Amino acid sequence: MSKDGRPPVPEWGKAIPSISFSVEKSEDGSSETFNTAQNSGLSKRNKLPLPPGRTQIDWMRVTQSNPDVAGNKGQIRKISMDEVKQHNKAEDAWMVLKGKVYNVTPYLEYHPGGREILVKVAGKDVTSLFNKYHAWVNSEFLIGKCFLGILTTE
């Protein structure tokens, strides 16, 4: 308590566990696993500075002014995992989240954690990672305009 009887003001973001992950392929290349490693103890949060004009507010403006952010001309289709895997580069990044396929290429520059983390998982199903680290985030609100179609198992 402070001298005036109020509780101290928290210092947000000072001590947050640091999290990292890697993607490993099986020897035959048939499967991938996400390995997470959490540093012991608490460390300062590594915030990545975004260039001017690349905040989440700016992203909302982009999606409001451009009705075809995904580049699919409003056509929703069924997409196989084989097709998703082909879009695994910074200049062409798709991912699967909760059974839906998104073209996140235009969102890369706006991602608060930096573009590299999304590029690492481009072409993959990121549902388990998203649920683990961003369960509270409304993905539909953030990347809904990047929606391409539904993942199919055919």
TrEMBL record:
Biased composition (Polar residues): 31-43
Key words, A-Z: Heme, Iron, Metal-binding
GO MF, any single term: metal ion binding
Cross-referenced InterPro entries: Cyt_B5-like_heme/steroid-bd, Cyt_B5-like_heme/steroid_sf, Cyt_B5_heme-BS, Cytochrome_b5/Flavoprotein_Rdt
Domain Cytochrome b5 heme-binding as annotated: residue spans: 76-152
Region Disordered, annotated ranges: 1-53
Pfam families: Cyt-b5
GO CC annotation, single: cytoplasm
Record-stated family: Belongs to the cytochrome b5 family.
The protein's name: Cytochrome b5 heme-binding domain-containing protein
